[in-house]
Design a protein that fits this description.
Oligomer: single chain
Radius of gyration: 20 Å
Number of helices: 13
Number of strands: 16
CATH class of the largest domain: Alpha Beta
Strand order of the largest sheet: 10-9-8-11-13-15-16-14-12
Structural class: alpha/beta
Length: 369
């Protein structure tokens, strides 16, 4: 019987919905919980496992206790073989211990739910060339070791176990979260992992926008501002393309946060999901987002503040997608992606969007869940 090792970082992604741009450190986790954050990594790991077990029902799941894997496995309807011990709150060392224990047991694949920090912990403790795969559950996820969604993680894991997906070496990247919260993007390479690969199921590493795109971004901003209507709350997602809109309006924009403008003025800066929902009770809203370079994610990576409740409230028809043509060409015709954490909202967003690529320039582009 084949075995998979399941490791869940129970606090991964905790800071996303409340706008903290990460979950590293006990102080950040405490603040996130005080702000009403709800852990989602166990649910995401469970979704992945349901898909995997649907395709590979005769599979032994090996997990660490409680929230580090056992809870997700039981939620998915299976009885895992539980190994090791933990004393909450869990830590990076718990993840590293789990990796060593599962590798010693000889599991066929390690599935881990988390973000870039979790991938770093896996990378620091796993033997060379050992098969593993990430279930996306973090906030930023720049690394190329994660599936594009929890469901795709289960599908890709099954394909690997069936001999239908080869391994490839993929980069583990992480940001300095303190610098990130201050609007400075400082990415570092921490190593590589060997992960199953199939096109569209495994996400790419994030690619920065080149300085040469500033002119295009300004042209996009001119087009968007020309469309703006009075008394509408425009929700500006993270990124240099959306920041160009704020610059044209002469308002301050957080590079990696979500901000709101109305009637040409900044009305809310660096907001959480709950703050957005409060604003949308007062004013109609429009969401303006740009895909992540190299990955193509519109929602679910780095902008979890614009969660499924916000998207439902605004409506698909009031979402504006902006992107330079270079960024879209760099995707090599791969579709834009969504991973909001709500399957129904993901399906709502799937289809085609008219993307603003310049002043009065549009490109119709496919979005998949």
């Amino acid at each position: 019987m084949k075995q998979i090792g399941l490791i869940v970082n129970p606090i991964a992604g905790l800071g996303g919905r409340v706008g903290l741009k990460g979950s590293d450190g006990f102080e950040t986790q405490r603040r996130a919980l005080e702000m009403g954050a709800i852990p989602e990594s166990i649910d995401r790991a469970s979704l992945s496992l349901v898909e995997l077990l649907r395709r590979e029902p005769h599979l032994e799941v090996v997990s660490f206790p409680g929230d580090m894997g056992e809870s997700a496995a039981r939620q998915a309807g299976c009885t895992p073989s539980v190994i090791g011990e933990i004393s909450p709150p869990t830590s990076a060392e718990d993840t590293r211990r789990a990796v060593r224990a599962m590798c010693s047991r000889g599991v066929d694949l390690i599935l881990f739910a988390g973000g870039d920090g979790t991938a770093r912990d896996i990378c620091s403790s796993i033997p060379p060339h050992y098969p593993c795969l990430g279930i996306p559950a973090g906030v930023k996820i720049h690394s190329a070791v994660y599936a594009t969604s929890p469901r795709h993680a289960g599908e890709l894991a099954a394909m690997f176990l069936q001999g239908k997906a080869r391994l490839r070496e993929a980069e583990v990247l992480d940001l300095d979260e303190d610098a990130y919260r201050q609007g400075r993007v400082s990415t570092r390479l921490f190593g590589t992992l060997h992960v199953p690969y199939r096109p569209l199921l495994l996400q790419n590493r994030k690619a920065p926008s080149p300085e040469s795109e500033a002119y295009q971004a300004d042209a996009i901003a001119a087009d968007i501002i020309e469309q703006m209507r009075a008394d509408v709350a425009y929700i500006l997602g993270p990124g240099t393309t959306t920041r160009a809109i704020a610059q044209r309006l002469n308002v301050e924009k957080t590079l990696v946060g979500v901000d709101v403008v109305r009637n040409g003025r900044l009305v809310a800066r660096d907001v959480s999901q709950s703050q957005l929902l409060e604003l949308l009770e007062q004013f109609p809203g429009v969401i303006i987002v740009t895909p992540i370079g190299g990955q193509g994610f519109l929602f679910g990576r780095g902008n979890q503040q614009i969660g499924p409740q916000v998207i439902r409230k605004v409506g698909r028809e009031n979402i504006l997608v902006v992107s330079t043509a270079h960024k879209l060409r760099a995707l090599r015709m791969q579709p834009l992606l969504v991973d909001t954490g709500d399957t129904q909202v993901d399906q709502l967003l799937a289809g085609y969007f008219s993307v603003v690529t310049g002043y009065r320039e549009r490109m119709v582009y496919k979005v998949t869940a």
